[in-house]
């Protein structure tokens, strides 16, 4: 696909980082741009990880400001006065980490960028483990957005979420195949300086994923 261009949404977490490696393996580094969003997330360290990954892959990286999400879509991930809950994603309290409609907003901006740069494809890393807690990672949402993005401009952009039927462990297995440098990823919602807490839903799911893939997580944890 050397004559095609792709845009990938890169948060700096392990899912989107694996996806970035995957997209580069298909399109080549000269044909890929990564977009990250600064929406006032408490775990903003992920943006630095995204930057380092893009440098390593040799791809262009853009960070778009999206602070308005903190005003219109309150969440434990953005409001300083809200505590990030601990536990597994399957628990009801983890819904506090949902940023309402975040993916639709980000996908809309990313689609606009793809259209403006005459890119052909747009990728984001929704996966099967997200479905229960994040409504905007469900198959029905992705299909609706795929249709909408196609209709939004004369320069047709195709939206893909290739990990939609994979869980985080499957993604880690794919990352192992691709040689992903997971030391340059950040997942924790409650970091203590440069250490991951090991207790939030995001950390719990990450550790389970590495266990399934049979690889050691290279980042450091408080416990």
Describe this structure in words.
The chain has helices spanning 14-27, 45-57, 68-72, 102-116, 139-151, 168-178, 201-213, and strands spanning 6-9, 32-38, 60-65, 121-123, 158-160. It is α/β, with parallel strands linked by helices and 223 residues long. The protein has one domain (6-213): 3-Layer(aba) Sandwich (Rossmann fold), CATH 3.40.50.620. α1 crosses α6 (168-178). The radius of gyration is 16 Å and the shape is globular.
Count of separate structural domains: 1
The N- to C-terminal Cα distance equals 44 Å
Number of helices: 7
Stretches with pLDDT under 50, minimum 5 residues = none
Shape field:
globular
CATH superfamily: HUPs
In CATH, the topology is named Rossmann fold
The helix/strand class is: alpha/beta
Write down the overall mean pLDDT: 85
Layout of secondary structure:
Blueprint: E1 6-9, H1 14-27, E2 32-38, H2 45-57, E3 60-65, H3 68-72, H4 102-116, E4 121-123, H5 139-151, E5 158-160, H6 168-178, H7 201-213
Parallel strand pairs: 1-2, 1-4, 2-3, 4-5
What descriptive keywords fit this protein?
223 residues; alpha/beta; Rossmann fold; 5-stranded parallel sheet; 7 helices
Describe the structure concisely for a colleague.
By secondary structure, the chain is of the alpha/beta class. The protein contains seven helices and five strands; from the N terminus they run βαβαβααβαβαα.
